[in-house]
Design a protein that fits this description.
The chain is mainly β and about 300 residues long. It has a single domain, classed as monomeric porin ompg (Porin, Beta Barrel), CATH 2.40.160. It has no helices and 17 strands. The strands form two sheets. A twelve-stranded antiparallel barrel has the order 4-5-6-9-10-11-12-13-14-15-16-17. Strands 1-2-3 form a three-stranded antiparallel beta sheet, with no helix packed on it. Strand 12 and strand 13 form a beta hairpin. The termini are far apart.
Amino acid sequence: MLAAPAWGQHAAVPAVEPAPLEMGAWESPAGIQTVVFQESFGGPNVGAAIEPLGAERFSTENDPIRVPEPLLFDLVRPLGARQGKVEFNTLASFPWRRSRRATDGDPFGIAPNTPDRGGIEWAPEVEYAIVDDFAIEFEFPFEDARLEEYKLGLQWTIGTAFDNHYIHGVQVLIEPTVHWEYWNTTLLYIGGIRFDETWSALFMVGGRVNLEGPRTYESFQTLFNASLFADVNPWLTVGLETNYASHNDGSSEVVLVPQAQVELTDYVQVQFGLGFGYDEELLEQAFILRAIWSR
């Protein structure tokens, strides 16, 4: 039998050390640092995301993967956008070298239904995620001071796959001219791939056709866009965008756009690059800029 401690004394209680915690840090390409505390006996992870710059937030455990958007042919908000996310941006293309001054071919044409007059093409737009994974945009393409088309865009994110390394969706664009003579419609399948913390890619494949106007069948184009991105540091991404369009008459257009994306503040980002476009008769080079505010 154990003797009871004398009055005023305390029985010795062996010290029990808490299970050790293992701490690890993972830093995503956009500078999000997630600190994970893992219980040594295999308990659940508890993570917290810290992002110094938040204009385009990279994914955490609870969000879809994030793949950058191309400069020339962008998305209607990133794939997997959450409800209430909004963006205002303006794209501008400044042609600075052409092999001829044609009015038909236009590899960089922001407004595909209108002739190219050799001016500065620019397009302000607003994008908004109405609900999770579904976003809408309104865009107004200009050439110099001339409004050329209206543009409505709809985009639905289908989901993710391959252990959250792949995200995909569909996009529909409707573009009537300002006098409603032509109605141009585009349907695209979009896929984004996150290879690792640095490298990612995005592709779009689909078609474009005039639903209203002459030569509807001849107007059909097969479209393909492929972009490769590298996240250099938390605020800089570089990439190469490739756009290809094949027409029913056998002609085609190819555009290459080496580019950079710079995150300036929590809400402001700029994209810029040099475009090299070829449409079998026209070789054109242009400086392309997109200014973005998003939250």
